[in-house]
């Protein structure tokens, strides 16, 4: 049985992890630059203000990934005997909470400008002696903050799936969905130019709703993770088929009469325990348990620790749904 | 790649639409249209050397800028003298088009009305004119005029 070890990705995933880190650094610098550009051209537009907040907030998944990447593989010690894996989920929760609360605030803000009928004022900016309507600069800023972001998102998505990395997945997904921001803000600004004062607030409202939605889905996921929900795939949120393999493994042991097991996620890795009722108690039991635990851990790099507990009969508290290995409808 | 393709297509359609309009941006309440060949309603509050009360309407740097701007629009100026507070409240209610009172861009009125971009800077204070909110064609016209006056104005203000 292997203890929770200093975690490292298996050799074949090391370059993927390195690439993900590199892309996240690029994202951080890119997002800082877009926030500056959007801030400088923001003027009086509510849509631009909302887009600015979105840019700042979309930094949180990247930063939490990079911070977590430095911490999660630390060796367990006396004070933290289970290691540092949960740091990933905590980082994720913080980002989600920020998104959710700022999203809610921005919806309120956009709605109140709409109700108060505040007409956005957009004047000119003088650039190298040329008089340019600030609205055109806003549009340029939005194009800059949208298109590279979509490309980065597309590059990060497959890496996140391979690494089973939620922060990275959320980040990639948010980047990919960034076209929404551009697609709302640009017509909003052009609408102001057409003399439709409400276009700006409506665009801001759409962007704020998008932020709130991201916040809600991430918050839900972070809470489920912290409550030890059964392991799910990062992308489609279905129960990981790996659990079926574990179930098969346990089922095909001739020395096991009955069994039940449960698994949970901690960051990228899975931890779990099985209760088994052996047929007979001979001197081989310890050896068999050790061998089986090793075989289960060898199924995939994600299974970091799998404990096997021999019992006289299966714990009754685990009846029905609580027995994920057997009657759980989620698996079958 | 589908979605991003649509997105770029959609974007270029909008941009094409926008740039094909000559009068862009437009006013939601057609202020520029009404003022041109009509009346420019301006409130003033004394604040020398920017606004100085005179027998035939105000004089001073800002008053002269307004007269110059009105001339480019072929508009007659209708002056209204009051306290800064009252004038800005009238401006907020769109009873005036412009207010001059030697206001700088750090004024707390910023959220209720609009300021033009600073037309000059003196003693580290950026001077602005107050404009009715959201009438973007009118504001762009005024800001362009102020920008063109900038060099002559700075020569005059040199000590």
From TrEMBL, chain A:
Gene Ontology terms, MF aspect: monoatomic cation transmembrane transporter activity
InterPro entries given in the database record: Cation_efflux (IPR002524), Cation_efflux_TM (IPR058533), Cation_efflux_TMD_sf (IPR027469), CDF_Transporter (IPR050291)
Keyword Kinase recorded: no
Domain Cation efflux protein transmembrane: 31-227
Topology in membrane: Multi-pass membrane protein
A GO CC term attached to the entry: membrane
Listed transmembrane segments: 23-40, 84-108, 133-153, 179-199
Pfam families linked to this entry: Cation_efflux
Keywords recorded for this protein, A-Z: Membrane, Transmembrane, Transmembrane helix, Transport
Protein localization: Membrane
Taxonomy, superkingdom: Bacteria
Keyword Cytoplasm: no
PANTHER family in the record: MITOCHONDRIAL METAL TRANSPORTER 1-RELATED
NCBIfam families hit by this protein: CDF
Family membership noted in the UniProt record: Belongs to the cation diffusion facilitator (CDF) transporter (TC 2.A.4) family.
Protein name: Cation diffusion facilitator family transporter
Species whose genome carries this gene: Rufibacter hautae
TrEMBL record, chain B:
Superkingdom in the source lineage: Bacteria
Gene3D superfamilies xrefs: Periplasmic binding protein-like II
Segments forming domain Solute-binding protein family 3/N-terminal: 40-123
Secretion signal, residue range per the UniProt entry: 1-25
Keyword Signal: yes
Keywords: Signal
Keyword Kinase tagged: no
Record's protein name: Amino acid ABC transporter substrate-binding protein
Lineage: Bacteria, Pseudomonadati, Bacteroidota, Cytophagia, Cytophagales
